[in-house]
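Hey L., structure's done. Input below.
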Amino acid sequence: MKKITSFLCLSFLLFSCGEDENPIDLEYPEIVVTENSFPLQCSVLQRGSTVEFKALFADNVELGGFSLDIHHNFDHHTHSTEVSDCNEDPVKAPVNPWLLIQTYTIPEGMTEYEGAAEIEVPEDIDPGDYHFLIRVTDQEGWQTLHGLSIKIE
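Output:
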């Protein structure tokens, strides 16, 4: 009986140690900031203008999608992932702040993708300090956030 139990245990160990065809993805996707990225920390956008968002996304297995979130920072809260700070206006109460939340899909099978989006900055919004949040997810659901401080004049 001892020999049978030992044989079964050894067999289990040998056959359970094979390569997994679908390894578990444990890596977060990346937001790669390059000289072509826009906006960058402390960028200034003009009300009534159209700007072109650009960022490079990468993942070890497969990207999923990305989203953009622009909202006011009139109370000086923080989401920044940047080392440098920007000059901030005094704290103020919002009257007509801008809020943009937009989601974009990335084509299937991509491990690297240059995200781009045309963004129209409304004319009638409050000028001042804003946050520009970039989120990217991979197919497994891991998410990376890149938070920028921008100003709208």
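The CA atoms of residues 8 and 14 lie 10 Å apart. The chain has a mean pLDDT of 89.

-- N.
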